[in-house]
Amino acid sequence: MAIVERQARIQFDNILFATDFSKSAGAAAPYAAELAKHYKAKIYALHVRSRIAASAETVKSLREATILIAKARELINAFPGLQPQVLINDGDLWSNFQTTIERHKIDLVVMGTRGRSGISKLLLGSVAEEVFRHASCPVLTVGPHSPAEPRNSGEFNRILFATDFSPEADAAAPYSVSLAQEYQARLTMLHVISEPKVGDLVSSPELISSCSNLLRNLVPPAALLWCNPEYVVETGTPADKILEVAATRKADLIVLGIRHPRGIPGAAEHLPIATAHKIVSHAECPVLTIRG
User: Fold this and answer.
1) Angle between the 127-134 and 116-123 helix axes, to the nearest 10 degrees?
2) What phi and psi, each to the nearest 5 degrees, are found at residue 110?
C-alpha cells in the first residue's frame, strides 16, 4: 500500500443542513453551525416537502405560505449570526439533494436521524441511504445517541478512523488526518479483523502486525510532526468493535469510508452500508461518512 506523501488541509466552504423539522433533525443543527463557524463556511438549510404537502398548498395557499414563512424563520434562527440560505423545495428527496449539492458546490452534508423506532425507515431504503451511497461529498450524521449539543465547544478532540483497507474506505483517511490537525485532536486509526469462520486460520501476531503497519502507512509522515496517532487492530464484528473502541476512547467523531460489500479477506462485511447504518444508529457521537 502506498504511503500518502502529502497532507493537504481539507476545507469545507459550503455546508448543507438537511431537515424535516423533527426534533432529531434539529439536533444536527448545532453541529452544522459549529463547523460553519470554524471553517467560515456558507450554510444552506434544506427542507424538502413531499408532493402531497406541496399539492395541499394549492388548496390552502395562504395557510401554507404562512407555515413556510414560519419554517424559514425557524431555520434562520437555528444559525444565529450565520445568515443561512434557506431552501424549501418540493418533490423527490434525493433529486433535491443531488441538485442542491451540485448547484451550490456543497462539500459537506449534515443531517440528523430519528430514534430506534424510526431510524430504519430514515436510513435503510430511504433518502439517507441514497445520501450515503451516492453523495459526492462527505456526510456528517448525528445519530439518536449523539449529545444534543456538541461536546468541547464543538471541537473534535478525539477522532476515530476505521478502515478495512479497501481503496474506498481508505479514501476517508485524509479527512480524519486533516480534521485531527485542524482541531489538534487525538487520532485513533482502527482496523477490525472479522472473526474467523470454521476452517479459517485464526488471527496471527504477524497478521496483526501487518495490519498495524498498513494503518501507519495511511498517516503522512508530515502529520507525525504534530500528532502521535494510536494504531489499533481488533478482532470481532466490525460494527460492534468500532462502537466499542469509540466508546472506550470517548470519541467525539467517527470517520468511515463506505463502500458496497465485496470480498476482502477478513473484512468482507466491514464497511458496507449496513455496517455504517449500525454505527450511526448506536454511536454516541456524530459519524462522518465518505463515499470512496
Assistant:
1) 50
2) -120, 125
Residues found in the chain: 292
pLDDT digits (tens, 9 = 90+) for 258-274: 875 444 444 444 556 67
Where in the sequence is the domain holding 133, given as residue range(s)? 14-142
Q: Based on the domain organization, do 159 and 134 belong to the same domain?
A: no
Residue with cell 398548498: 57
The least confident of 3-12, 26-35, 102-111, 204-213 is 3-12
- The most confident of the ranges 24-28, 123-127, 154-158, 253-257 is 253-257
Alpha helices for the chain (secondary structure H): 23-26, 29-39, 51-59, 61-77, 93-103, 116-123, 127-134, 167-170, 173-183, 205-217, 238-248, 273-282
Q: Do 156 and 138 share a structural domain? A: no
Same domain assignment for residues 122 and 198:
no
How many domains does the chain divide into?
2
